[in-house]
Amino acid sequence: MLAFGLASCAVAQKKFTKGERGALKELKAKTIKDARKEARKMKKQGFKPFPGGLPLEMQLQDSWIKQLEVNEEGHEKYLYADGNGVGKTQTAAEFQAMEVAKLQLAGQISNEVIQIIEGKIANEQIDRETGNSLTKIVSGSKNYVVESLPYVKPRLKVIREVGKRDVEVQVKLFYSYEESLAAAEASMERRAREELESEADELIEEIDNIFDNVFQRRGERRGRNR
Q1: 3-state secondary structure string across 139-189
Q2: Is the pLDDT of residue 41 over 60?
Q3: 48: which residues sit within 8 A by CB, 6+ positions away?
Q4: Are residues 135 and 116 in contact, defined by beta-carbon separation less than 8 angstroms?
Q5: How far apart are CA 117 and CA 139, in angstroms?
Q6: Strand 48-49 relative to strand 78-87: parallel, antiparallel, unpaired?
Q7: Which of 108, 116, 107, 117 is CA-nearest to residue 140?
Q8: How many CB atoms lie within 10 A of CB 199?
Q9: Which domains, and CATH codes, for the chain?
Q10: Band of the pLDDT at 165, cuts 50, 70, 90?
């Protein structure tokens, strides 16, 4: 997987200070130069845009700037992930890359939720048994989350030939935090109902409380799925 100039963000709840916001403006101004440099490097590696796609420099610049966007509370506005796929055809490689990126995104959300669950256990807000059941539901919901995420057009999509017959596709996807969290919550609640019928209502209530916590910390609008 290529490193696209800026480190990939997890769902960590970072809030930018006034000084950091000023630094972000400087970073945005620097992206044009960096994008050109990275584009030259990728071209040497054999990567090129898809037919009809924007020039590589513009795709890199656009994706880097989007990573820096924040909401009114100073939190990252978008959740993003990289995906890589290799296949005999362009279509097969692209599909694989998209699925890998979505799975990475689902993993980021799951890790954040599990951290909150562990915090609730440590603070005795929920008992260990309930916490373990929630962790099991969350850990096993990644594929559900992937299925629930809608298609989005990659901000970065490049392709190169690998060997004599294969092609490699790399993509970078961006989802709004609000939409991603809402999709994840609905997926986890669905899995709870399917896997734990007798305990479902209690666990779904806890899942709802956890996502309330996440939305509040980010200052996002809370959409209800039920």
Answers
A1: HCCHHHHHHHCCCCCCCEEEEEEECCCEEEEEEEEEEEHHHHHHHHHHHHH
A2: yes
A3: 56, 158, 159, 160
A4: no
A5: 12
A6: unpaired
A7: 107
A8: 14
A9: 17-68 (no CATH), 82-217 (3.10.129)
A10: very high
Is-contact 113 142, C-beta < 8 A? no
DSSP-derived pairing of the beta strands 78-87 and 156-162: unpaired
Choose between 91 and 21: higher pLDDT: 91
pLDDT-derived band at 206 (thresholds 50, 70, 90) equals confident
Distance (Å) of CA 95 to CA 8, 39, 109: 21, 23, 21
The encoded tokens of residue 15 equal 């809030």
The pLDDT value recorded for residue 144 is: 85
> Cβ(225)–Cβ(189) under 8 Å?
yes
- Measured distance CA(225)–CA(221) in Å, rounded: 13
Pick the closest to residue 5 from 20, 30, 200 (CA basis): 30
- Residue 178 burial by Cβ neighbours in a 10 Å radius (0-12, 13-18, 19+): middle
222 within 8 A of 215, measured Cβ to Cβ: yes
